[in-house]
Amino acid sequence: MRASIESLSSSFTNFRSATSWFEVYAAFSTFMMILRTAMNDLIPQQVRLFITSKLKAFFSDRQNSHQVSLQINQFWEGQTNQLFQAAQEYLPARITHTYKSLKVGKLPKHKSVVVAVDGKQEVADEFEDIKLKWKLIESSYKRDHPEHPKSNEQLSFTLSFDEKHRDKVMNKYIPHVLSTHEVIKAKQRTIKIHSMISRHWQKSDLTHPASFDSLALDPEQKQAIIDDLDRFLRRKELYKKVGKPWKRGYLLYGPPGTGKSSLIAAMANYLKFDVYDLELSSVYSNSDLMRALRDTSNRSIVVIEDIDCNKEVLARPNTDTYSDPDSDSDSKPVKVKSRLTLSGLLNHMDGLWSSGGEERIIIFTTNHKERIDPALLRPGRMDMHINLSFLKAKAFRILALNYLGIEGDHPLFEQIEGLLDKIQVTPAVVAEQLMRNEDPDVALEALVKFLEEMYVNTLLLES
Asked: In Å, what is the CA distance from 65 to each residue of 124, 132, 224?
């Protein structure tokens, strides 16, 4: 071995004057072979493994010295960590086809299969040229662990990234995860409809399937409504800048059966807003109205139907008698001197939105717009007036597609549309006729006969 070292030393000594690299390479290779043999013979295997592990750890630490890791626990001071929940919803959308291990399941209120990471593999993400890695970690705790006393397991995420991106991750990436989670949550949430029962809101799932695609409305009118809703949603900062509460008022008017309730359901499904059906006959006084409106949530639609039929409600005598639903059943009726008034309704409409809550919509419906007090119709209370009128040609095509599956044209369409221009018939009446037969041709022939009879009756009445 000494001879090999001397040969290698001599080669390096003469390196400046040597023209051949082969001698250097041969001497070095011989030295390494002898050194490896000596190490295997003289150094025990356990010592060799120990040295190797230390070298690996040393170089690994040096390689990761610029990595920062953030731990995001499932619980924080006994409460659910919203950032952990956001990461749970955010990460499945970042899983690629190279990801080998997933958890899947089906929840009652989800329409599709739910996917989640299981901790066996890191999830890579990229944000504004920053490379990030997420890892799900499961930790065991005793039952009396202060952060979550009801479980002996706690999950957490570890987020790793280069230290130079610390500020951007904290100030931009994490808010991006949180905002993305809000969008996902809004799409997945079950919309609720709230009804006033015994002076309290009672909620249930809104299962009405109406959508803007299925509504039998003129396409231009439908697009105008969608554009107005979208404009309202994105103008939070503008409302704040000009000092106006972030609310929008709509008046839906037209004959019965023209789709007012379906339009409300379509708006709720489109916006993912809860619906509060405020029946004024169940509101006993201005103070009851104030409490009912105060208890509505953000991102909600308050509906007051048939506002023209509530004159009696708004003009009740000053003294009324009612039983307090929160008291014992044996208690006597209570007399009150307060009442619900139109001015009270208007003041609460204006005052509620200004004093609390945001991203609210209030909808009034009526069959007779001319009967409504002009004070209710001004902008700021009813900003957009939507006339839901009798069925015409363009809207009929939507009904034919929805109920009969007819796309494009049909030989009977021209005759039907000509009759619709001459008579007044609601979408609800025509839809009922289309549902009476599953065969499209038979259903349309029956509809033609029905409309012709209506036309003849109209002529007779006019004469």
From this structure: 19, 15, 57
Indicate the average pLDDT of the chain.
80
Tens-digit pLDDT profile for residues 15-39: 455 555 666 666 767 767 776 776 6
Q: Please report which helix (H) or strand (E) contains residue 67, including its range.
A: strand 67-73
Which of 15-24, 296-305, 368-377, 417-426 tops mean pLDDT?
Answer: 417-426
Give the C-alpha separation, 115 to 104, whole Å.
5
Which one, of 98, 96, 102, lies nearest residue 125 by Cα? 96
* Host H or E run for residue 321: strand 320-322
Longest dimension (CA), the chain: 129
Number of helices (H), then strands (E), belonging to the chain: the values are: 17, 17
Strand spans (E) along 37-181: 67-73, 75-76, 79-80, 102-105, 114-117, 123-127, 130-140, 153-162
Query: Contact 349/321 with Cβ under 8 angstroms?
Result: no
Residue recorded with tokens 């809000």? 182
Question: How many C-beta neighbours within 10 Å does residue 238 have?
Answer: 11
Nearest of 424, 415, 411 to residue 457 by alpha carbon: 424
**Beta-strand (E) ranges in 141-221?**
153-162, 192-197, 200-205
In angstroms, the CA 211 to CA 263 distance is 8
Q: Whole-model pTM above 0.85?
A: no
CA distance 223 to 167: 42
> How far is CA 362 from each of CA 301, 335, 451, rounded to the nearest angstrom?
6, 31, 36
Beta strands 300-304 and 67-73, pairing class: unpaired
Whether the Cβ atoms of residue 166 and residue 153 lie closer than 8 Å to each other: no
Q: pLDDT tens digit string along 128-187?
A: 989 999 998 887 554 444 544 444 567 899 999 999 899 999 999 999 999 888 888 777
Q: Show the tokens assigned to 19.
A: 């023209």
Q: Which amino acid is at 314?
A: L
3-state secondary structure of 250: strand
Q: Is 428 left (phi over 0), alpha (psi -120 to 50) or beta?
A: alpha
- Look up residue 110 and give its amino acid: H
DSSP-H helix ranges across 323-380: 342-355, 374-377
DSSP secondary structure letters along 271-312: HT-EEEE--GGG--SHHHHHHHHHTPPSSEEEEE--GGG-HH
The residues, ordered by sequence, that sit 6+ positions from 101 with a Cβ below 8 Å of its Cβ are: 118, 120, 121
